[in-house]
């Protein structure tokens, strides 16, 4: 899968953007301007190399989602679903999907992508639970990217067990790319990329936070590649730094606003 989002839509953490500077121990290394591939060219490459792949673009290309159905028989679990102008790409699987569907009043035949859309709509419209609590209830290896075309919001999350991997970065034009294909992200983002942090969630209005440890702040940890150059930072839970206490999310509250207050 591949997601490309305009910089005005997704405000990625500034630490994800590499300074393209030599790391300590390499003070005289000359940094050449990286040969980066434009995001639209990466999209074309993704579509041309994956049989039956397709893409959807929204709001004058402010957001693009590309998806390649898994081969048969397939070694991994990938799903794409769209309901009421909300689109979701889901990677992995949920061990407790049946009980979650029952809890949310969904059909027994509903898949993981459909569940994520319904859970998101519940959070967005009624907000009976904090977002982190909903995600902590998901059992299994998972990662998903969701785009709400009406609200123009992006919601991303990655499970804590590391069974699914996602990578995100900032391309040369400032757009944010996210994919399970590392080569795609590196091609457009050069050094300004990092693995998406496990056990975390990102909302375009609320930012990045840990759903496993919602009362702890995230700390940017600079990365250095094998050549000694600074790359986009990893994000780890800072056990010594606390956020404000999590507010109770009532039926009249906006879950994204409540999330954003924690940063």
UniProtKB/TrEMBL annotation:
Entry superkingdom: Eukaryota
Family annotation (Pfam families): DUF3700
Residue span, DUF3700 domain: 2-237
InterPro entries per record: DUF3700 (IPR024286), Ntn_hydrolases_N (IPR029055), TSJT1-like (IPR044828)
Protein name: Stem-specific protein TSJT1-like
